Every structure is written in C-alpha cells, then in structure tokens.
UniProtKB/TrEMBL annotation:
Residues 94-117 have a biased composition (Low complexity). GO terms for biological process: amino acid activation for nonribosomal peptide biosynthetic process; secondary metabolite biosynthetic process. Gene3D superfamilies: ACP-like (1.10.1200.10), Chloramphenicol acetyltransferase-like domain (3.30.559.10), Nonribosomal peptide synthetase, condensation domain (3.30.559.30). This is Carrier domain-containing protein. One of its GO terms (molecular function) is phosphopantetheine binding.
Amino acid sequence: MAQTDAMQDILHLELANALHISTEELNLDQSFLVQGGDSLSAVQFLSKCRLRGIHIDIVDTVQCKTLAELVERIISKHESNPHNLILNDRVGNSDTSTSSSSSDDAASATGSDSTDTVPDVRLKHLAQDPARQIESIGPCSSMQNRILISQAVNSAAYQCRFILRIKSSVPDSLTASHIANAWPRIVARHSSLRTTFLESETRQSTFDQVVWTEVNPKVTILQDEAQVKADGMLNSFESGSVPHHMYIYAASSSELILRLEVSHAVIDGRSADVLLYDLCAAYENQLPDTKAMPYTDFVRMEEESFQDVERIAGYWQNYLRDAEETYLAGVGNKPRAGLHTLQDRVDIPAEEARRFCDAYGVTLAD
C-alpha cells in the first residue's frame, strides 16, 4: 500500500509537470488532453515516469477519459509487472543507465537471470524465434516518431490511400491474382514494408522499428467496387502488424483497380513512386533479386548528421536567406493583423495540379 501511495504521488507530480500546472490544479476527473496536454507533453510525461521505473503506454495517456482512470491503469499494470521505483528526484538521464536499469527490471519481472535486453523480451511475445525471424531492430527517424505519436492519439492520422488504375489493350490479360502474387515480392524487397513499431524502452527515440525477415502481407481480392465502398474509411493497423493492406478488384475485363492503404510511417511521396516502379517490374517478372537499401541506414545517417547542429543551422539560414514571409498562419500562430481572407471553390484539373507540383517540388495533401 505504501508503494502504491508513493507511486500515485509520483504520477500526480509528473502529470502536473507535463501539463505545466501545480498538483493542486490537477483535476483527476478530466482527461490529459482536456487539461491542455498534447502528444509532445504526453511523451515528456512518459519519459520522466520511465526514468523513475514506471512503464507507461502513450496510448493510455491520451485515451483514458480521466486522469484518475489513467493513474489506476498505470498502477495496475505496474503491479502485474513490477519495476523498481525511484522515489527521489535524483534520476539519471543517460542512455546507459536507463538501458541497464530497464534490462535488470525486465529480468526480475520474468523471474530469471536472463541476459535478454528489453527489446528481446518484448519481441518474444511477437515471435517464437526472434533471432531468426527478425532482420533488425533500431530507432525510428524523428519524422516517424512524430507520425507514430499522432497515430497513438488518433489511429486514423497519417494513414495514406493510394488508388491505381491499370489498363491493358488486350482483354482478360490482367488478373487480380497476378498482382496479388507480385505484391509479396515487393514487400520482400523493401524492408520498410516488413516493419512493425514498438514503443522504445531503452533508446532516446520514442519508438523502435522492428524489421522482419519475412511477412505475409495483407492482400484482399474484392468482387467489385461496391465492396470497396462497404469497406469504409481508412484502416487503423493493429500494434505489432505491418501497417499496410492491398485491395484489388476488376473494373472490367481489361482494367484493374488497386487500392493500397498504408501508414505514412513507412511510405511517402517519393518512396511511393519507387514501389510503383518495382510493382510494374514484378508484374513483368523483371524485379531484381537484390534487396533495396535498408531504411535503418538512413536513420543512422540522420542521427549522425544531427550531431553537427551548427552545420545544419547554417544550411537552413542560407537556404531561407531570400525567402519572403508568408501571410498564412503557422501551426499555433494567429494570422497576421489586417489580413482579409476570401473562401471560394476553385476547380483545378488533376493534370494541371500534377504539373504545378512537379514544377515547384511540392506535394498536395488534404
């Protein structure tokens, strides 16, 4: 009981710190978001608590309807999988001390002298033989972290939908099964399509990305367009599953419609073109046997480049030297004083929009 009370006091204190209010102002009958919290403050709360030996899921922080429910859920999970509480304010902040503490806690929680790291322990819940079934595990990029945090708040956020129309001049030469057989070869070639995400235990990044050696991608062949409409809005992908799903249906004897639903954490506008190119090559049995460059190489390069802050700052100062201030309001900013706006509907042909984007190197997003 004493430890539970101490843990409750710690949670109240760290919640107040994350929300920038005093513990007296903390309203346990309101949710974290209602009291001014957001995804960034949720991550700060999560990090501080983990340094104190309290494991917290960011999803719980933003989904619980009240802080009282959140505190009760955290304590319940802690009692079922106990860690050593750090009750004073002398909390270490180095990766080494955090990793060591987490690994020791994981070993004591399993009741053994196992030398498995925390990621290894968690991966055993997803795979029978992690060493054989997992290609790599590492931190996410800064952009991936932002996307995944947003998806923890709203599962529909940053879910992309690509719809492709494939035509053939020869009737009955296109088959949905042929496309369905080609897609797994694309997934096998690109590590990003074999990736799942876990909240990080031992790294500075918020999430870890786990790349599997083999996956069975979700491919659904539909009968007609009516099934597409019945399927509803974008899918939210379960934790631990690869975040993409391919749907295929025949619009006519010479036309197929492909719909790929995928998390923005594993794809963007540039990589979508690469996947489309490879899909065409796979359909014609011309896909290279070699695998593409692992995404983890990019993350490693990004981490190394971020160490030279002065060089990065100099690049952007030079890049933006002649830029003109925009009249549009930035995120969290108010519009400039004296700015008058007019709202109207403008019909822009798709081909004209595409030429505009190509000319200026921009991507339109809804």
